[in-house]
Amino acid sequence: MKDAPVIVLLHALGASARSFDAVVDRLAGYACIAIDLPGFGNAVGDTDFTVEEMADHVAAIIRARIDGPWVIVGHSMGGKIATILAARSEHGALPGLAGVVLIAASPPSPEPIDDDRRAMMIGWAAKGPLTEDEATNFVSENIAAPLPDAVMAAAVVDVRRSDSAAWLAWLERGSREDWSGRIGVLHLPALIVAGSADGDLGEANQRRLNAPHYANADVAVIDGAAHLMPLEQPAAVADLIRQHVAIAVATRPTIPPHFARLIASDRVSARTRAILIDRARPDAVDYVPHVLSSGQLATLRALMARVIPQEEGAIDLAARIDARLHAGEGDGWRFADLPADADAYRAGLDTLDRAAGAGGFAGLDDERRDALLMRIEDGDCLVVTDATLSPAQMALWFEDVRADGVRIWLAHPATMARIGYDGIASGGDGWRKQGFAKTRADDPERWEPRATKERLR
Question: Does Cell cycle show up as a keyword for this record (predicted)?
């Protein structure tokens, strides 16, 4: 699918990249990269078994093969790795991540495995590769209903060819590692999927252990499935991934790869990078206002759409203004003839709706919206019944609103990339700042992103 992010898939303990074959078949049109984690599948010879080493293994593949946005899907053991990579992305070390899908995922905290079952699985591998009976038992205990014969046979083969040392490394150490403090709360769009018949990693534990690490998380439950959902119900898994990719694309303004790499480079200080990453966080689809009412937020969104028309993947300027009002943030001044910022916004939006007539400002077509805003800008808006701001105050308020919207829009990394602004790259964290050697127009530096050079010329 054109402009869609690449979908990266990480498998479960004892599985391999091919455990996603049926899912990938149903994601026709999307570029998919299913990766064998060290010690499993075709990566049996790789001995990087620690959680951090597995994350490094996947990160290297992503850097080598993806030059643009991507979404990561992590199943069970792969889910813990996916969340670690999501944290790296939010901190600027792995740019381009647009969303996360966790399927029966191991959490950042120690995985809740029944002690007796853990001991039994450790015992299987302590003597070497698992026997066919042990592998069959492992697969059978993690499904809700029998699999097709060919699918079952492939799953058993994957378990048997798993490196015993990798199997033990996960059960004895990796699954017990606590990364929760290092992960914190991530703001990427996330979908957490649970099987209705899963035990240790079912819906309750997904909500308790994984959901708190994602500020924008939805939880979906697949009925009639247990732990091995990509094998049990690949169509349902593919549908959920497809839906989440669409949401991730729609809610996240695109930061081109060349600009994402610039942000991640050593020319940008860690403090500046953190600020830019915070600004690039996706807006919540179901944002609930804190200062404005739902109706006032809808009016402000309609107003912002005329002040700064945006394409798909728009920045929700209205929600960000409300969040700033709630946090008490502002530009440090206000017009003396206007009330405090939060009161001015509420009063201005109410007055705008009343001036628009029945249906309010959001109910007008674009032509009538623009005509009304031009009158407000000129200070000759008609006085309306029960208006809370006068025409003169409305002109001042509208000036403030435009300044707020433009400031937030211009400060977003996607906008910086669009207009070719790379002044953020004036120096990293060393004592000697790289700075700019060339300052003439149409004479870019060699390091400047290619897209910027083309615009300047």
Answer: no
